[in-house]
Design goal:
Strand content of chain A: 5-15%
Structural class of chain B: alpha+beta
Distance between the termini of chain B: 65 Å
Largest sheet of chain B: 12 strands, mixed
Number of helices of chain B: 27
Order of helices and strands of chain A: HEHHEEH
Number of strands of chain A: 3
Shape of chain A: globular
Oligomer: heterodimer
Strand content of chain B: 15-25%
Radius of gyration of chain A: 16 Å
Radius of gyration of chain B: 34 Å
Number of strands of chain B: 25
Largest interface: A-B, 18 and 21 residues
Shape of chain B: globular
Chain lengths: ~110, ~900
């Protein structure tokens, strides 16, 4: 499937993909990771997070995994998610899109005082 | 955890499949987040719950739409309902415009008040992790002061408490200081803060740096506003030298535009009464000796002048900090009984200190405006109910074409939600445009007014409110319309407008509810109005008309008392020679316009130890102060020119002090002193009581000394005029400049303005609640009129028959008015009963009357009854004029 048809990603979806880039996480871990990484600028509420996860699962950009962490760190009610191969391709396409926007913006505003 | 159970129930708003898949994870995330929010304080928890509600409302609706998206029929039907609603709106533009206007009014009023509540109460203070910030106060149980300023040595001891991560920040009063420029002197508002205060608040300057201990007496950090107005908003301003209070200081930093510190409510009982944003922060250092220099505080335990802010350690609670600090205060009371015997200490969350005093008034306004919206909802529901009668045929046809009941309800709800969303949209626009005017009405001392603006929270609130309002006004008409009997409706042909008995009953019930709501709201407004009039009727103890007031800052070159006396002699000679000036005087604390300073006094012949001496307010009287203010001398005499530095010290006391200290004995001739080592002062006169702390606060014991025996540095000047005092302001400024151009004069206001400003918060609340009350009366009148007019239309035929059979028009009038008045009477009775439960909540806002004030309780229902009768009279008059023949033909 052509990754471009999923672009552009919303900021929330992109942050979730970033949170999952390093490996599988459960929902609350994703929320914490996003908040920490954005210095509290993006705070995901449960409804927003899980509706986005639901959409990403339906689109096949992420997948739920059965593997569980060690028993002492596990909670059986938790579900773990990771980025699918398609998801990785889409995320990469989004990064390229953003990068080209940034370089276009740099060219356009060169000379302006920051 | 109870909230977790509530959240689990709320998750039912999501589609079942979604719930089964994600509910566990969502609950777990909610529990973690809620625990964090609770740790940050009650306000943070409340805000979190509000956001969670919005999160559920929005995402559950979206998830449901998503679920339906998979069955194209439903998605399409919602769209077609919206298109149908839009066509209906266009077909009935007048109805649509009126409905949107009514909703915009109700939602807009709510949005406006919520915008203020959000800016003042809900938004976190503009500091880093503001939930961890607290204030430490001295307490004095004997003098009944629970948030008093702290002595420097006590402050240093409190810093040993382990509950604090940081207890470095202390600041002195906000004071006006003269900024010397080439053009003369002007006032800047300054406060001295300990270095480290900015770091503790987690705020960095927009330009430059914060204080280091080496900056004492040499540096200044300025506000963004001051930087723009006085330093040209230029980055090169750093390094410029400003002369503040005759002291050259280098600008080392400029704070960001949104930085405010301290809020006026964070000052103790001293400091400016009026709201003043700080222009310049000076570094504060402690010294062992006595010094009059700005930014230097002597290390003392007996003089209290510091406000203290601290940050709690992570995990530490206000209760723990309170217990610990109170323990330290108890130790100090034992170790230093002379100064600390009656002094305790307490810890208050910073947010509570900054805005807590505004909470009752704002909650009251929110409740009032909620009532207005509720009434708008009831009115519109009634109107829609009437229309649902008209639209029964249309519903019946749709039903015949296969629409089930859920579809019919959905269609009506789509209509009302769209109406409410349009109302909400208009409301946002109107509120944005009118917020400036509303804030201009707000009292100047309301904290955080500068932070009030419509942000994402306000827009989210308005969206949610519009959604809920749309559903609320639609439910009753939707259910009623969906019950349309197919056969009856289709058979009735053109007469589809007649409502059934059930629907009529429903409409009557709505009118009763509306009148009851109006009673509660107007009773509240009536009580506030009566309170306001009671406050205005209070005699302040002086004559406020034709009196001009101002404060001056005398340059430091007038260091000795003799210098200052010479200056004042020249000043008052000039002021009194201005045409239109009757007399002039001055004092150190202006009634209703500034705060108070107290001192302990010992009475000759009393064996009380100094720590148990009574505390009284202390002022200086300058020149002809009592005469100019119109404060009567009740016994003895006022000060004279003979009461100078060479003469024995004398004082004048007020009536309350005379009564408290000497009961029925004549105080004139008795002697008092302010410390065990100071000389005795003879009381030479007793003056009338003056309400200094506000019209609502009774007079406190107070004493005056003559300026000739201790000339002050920054006195308030009062000038009694023969005409309009404001007209003399420019001349007075000119005379001051003629005396010495370095004298800074500020706060020039007529005393009537000072008096009006002292009740501005009460006036603000009253104006808004009165506006809500007036709206409620109009809505109740419209509601009663609308229902009665509809009843007359529906009963045209019946009334025609009655008239044809010989009924007199008068009896028809009685029938219609009687029916309407009965509904209103039931509503009024219910409203009065509800008021018994609600009005006691107003107690904090009332003055001079009880929550169940009999006059208000009688007048308001009578007024409403008169309005209801008038609203019934108009349809009744139409009923009287019905032509029986026309009615029977129709």
């Amino acid at each position: 499937m052509d990754p471009a048809r999923f672009l552009p990603l919303t900021p929330v979806v992109f942050e979730i993909m970033l949170a999952l880039a390093a490996g599988e996480r459960h929902g609350y871990e994703i929320m914490q990771d996003v908040e920490r990484r954005t210095d509290g600028r993006i705070v995901l509420h449960p409804g927003t997070l899980y509706r986005a996860l639901s959409r990403l699962l339906d689109q096949g950009l992420i997948e739920e995994i059965d593997a569980r962490p060690a028993a002492d760190r596990d909670d059986e009610r938790r579900r773990y998610y990771r980025v699918s191969a398609l998801g990785r391709a889409v995320a990469r396409a989004e990064v390229e899109r953003l990068a080209s926007q940034v370089s276009a913006a740099r060219r356009a505003f060169r000379g302006d005082r920051a | 955890m109870r909230m977790a159970a509530v959240y689990r129930q709320l998750l039912r708003a999501y589609p079942r499949a979604f719930r089964e898949r994600f509910a566990d994870g969502m609950q777990q995330a909610f529990r973690h987040r809620y625990t964090e929010a609770v740790r940050r304080g009650r306000l943070a928890a409340a805000l979190f719950l509000l956001r969670t509600l919005a999160d559920i409302a929005f995402n559950a609706a979206a998830a449901r739409l998503n679920a339906r998206e998979r069955t194209p029929m439903n998605w399409r039907s919602l769209g077609s309902d919206a298109r149908h609603a839009a066509r209906m709106f266009l077909r009935n533009p007048v109805f649509t415009a009126l409905a949107v206007a009514a909703l915009a009014l109700g939602i807009g009023a709510n949005t406006a008040i919520f915008t203020i509540v959000n800016g003042v109460l809900l938004k976190p203070l503009p500091y880093l992790d503001p939930g961890g910030l607290v204030m430490v106060w001295s307490t004095n149980a004997i003098e009944h002061r629970d948030r008093d300023v702290v002595a420097p040595l006590d402050f240093l001891d409190y810093r040993k408490a382990s509950a604090f991560a940081d207890l470095q920040a202390a600041y002195s009063f906000i004071v006006g200081a003269a900024l010397t420029t080439a053009a003369g002197s002007e006032q800047v508002v300054t406060t001295a803060v300990t270095p480290g205060m900015f770091e503790m608040l987690g705020r960095t300057p927009a330009l430059g740096r914060t204080f280091t201990p080496a900056d004492v007496q040499t540096a200044v950090i300025v506000s963004h506003r001051f930087w723009r107005s006085h330093l040209g908003g230029d980055a090169d301003a750093l390094g410029r030298v400003l002369t503040i209070a005759d002291q050259p200081r280098t600008v080392i930093g400029v704070m960001p535009a949104d930085f405010v510190f301290p809020y006026k409510s964070m000052l103790g009982p001293s400091g400016f009464s009026r709201s003043h944003d700080v222009d310049a922060w000076l570094p504060l250092a402690f010294v062992a000796g006595n010094s009059r220099a700005t930014g230097v505080a002597m290390l003392t335990r007996s003089v209290r002048f510091l406000s203290v802010v601290g940050r709690l350690k992570p995990g530490a609670t206000v209760t723990q900090a309170n217990a610990e600090i109170a323990g330290i205060a108890r130790q100090l009371a034992t170790t230093y009984p002379e100064s600390n015997r009656t002094v305790g200490a307490s810890v208050v969350p910073l947010h509570e200190q900054a805005v807590g005093a505004m909470r009752p008034a704002l909650v009251l306004l929110l409740a009032g405006v909620g009532f207005v919206l509720l009434m708008a909802c009831v009115n519109l529901a009634n109107l829609l109910l009437a229309r649902s009668g008209v639209r029964q045929r249309e519903m019946a046809v749709r039903s015949a074409l296969g629409a089930d009941r859920r579809r019919l309800i959905a269609q009506t709800l789509v209509e009302t939600v769209l109406l409410a969303l349009m109302g909400g949209g208009v409301a946002i626009g109107v509120v944005n445009a009118s917020m400036g005017a509303l804030l201009a009405m707000a009292p100047a001392d309301m904290p955080r007014l500068g932070e009030v603006h419509a942000d994402a929270t306000v827009i989210g609130y308005t969206f949610l409110l519009s959604l809920v309002t749309g559903i609320a006004i639609g439910v009753v008409p939707a259910v009623a319309a969906s019950r349309a009997e197919l056969q009856t409706a289709l058979k009735s042909g053109g007469r589809g407008s007649t409502a059934g008995r059930g629907q009529r009953r429903l409409r009557s019930a709505l009118v009763i509810a509306e009148v009851a709501l109006a009673v509660v709201l107007t009773l509240g407004a009536g009580l506030l109005l009566r309170s306001f009039l009671s406050v205005l009727a209070v005699d302040p103890g002086f004559q406020s008309d034709r009196l001009l007031t101002l404060q001056i800052a005398v340059p430091q070159k007038y260091q000795t008392p003799a210098h200052r006396l010479a200056l004042y002699r020249d000043l008052f000679t000039r002021l009194e020679s201005i045409p239109g000036v009757q007399s002039a005087g001055g004092t150190t604390r202006l009634p209703l316009g500034s705060t108070n300073v107290t001192t302990r006094i010992g009475v000759e012949g009393s064996d009380k130890p100094p720590a148990a001496w009574p505390e009284v307010e202390f002022r200086r009287a300058v020149h002809d102060y009592f005469e100019t203010m119109g404060i009567p001398v009740l016994r003895g005499r006022s000060f004279t020119a003979a009461d100078n530095a060479e003469a024995p010290p004398v004082v004048v006391v007020n009536q309350t002090m005379a009564r408290q200290l000497f009961a029925d004995a004549d105080p004139v001739g008795k002697r008092i002193r302010m410390s065990p080592t100071s000389p005795w002062n003879t009381i030479v006169g007793v003056i009338g009581d003056v309400r200094h702390s506000g019209l609502e606060a009774p007079a406190a014991p107070e004493m005056y000394i003559s300026y000739l025996q201790g000339p002050p540095t920054n006195p308030f000047i009062v000038i009694r005029t023969t005409g309009d005092p404001a007209a003399l302001a420019a001349t007075v400024r000119g005379e001051l400049r003629a005396v010495d151009k370095e004298i800074a004069a500020y706060d020039i206001r007529p005393m009537t303005q000072v008096r009006a400003d002292s009740v501005s918060q009460r006036r603000f609340v009253l104006l808004l609640v009165a506006a809500f009350g007036a709206l409620a009366l109009v809505m109740a009148a419209v509601g009663v009129y609308g229902v009665m007019a509809l009843i007359v239309t529906e009963r045209t035929c019946e009334i025609g028959i009655r008239l044809a059979l010989g009924a007199q028009p008068g009896s028809v009038l009685r029938l219609v008015v009687g029916q309407g008045v009965t509904l209103a009477a039931i509503g009024i009775a219910l409203g009065v009963a509800a008021s018994f439960a609600v009005t006691p909540l107003l107690t904090t806002q009332l003055f001079g009357i009880r929550p169940l004030d009999p006059a208000t309780m009688a007048l308001v229902p009578a007024l409403l009854m008169a309005i209801a009768a008038l609203a019934c009279y108009l349809p009744a008059r139409r009923a009287m004029r019905i032509d029986p023949v026309d009615a029977l033909r129709a």
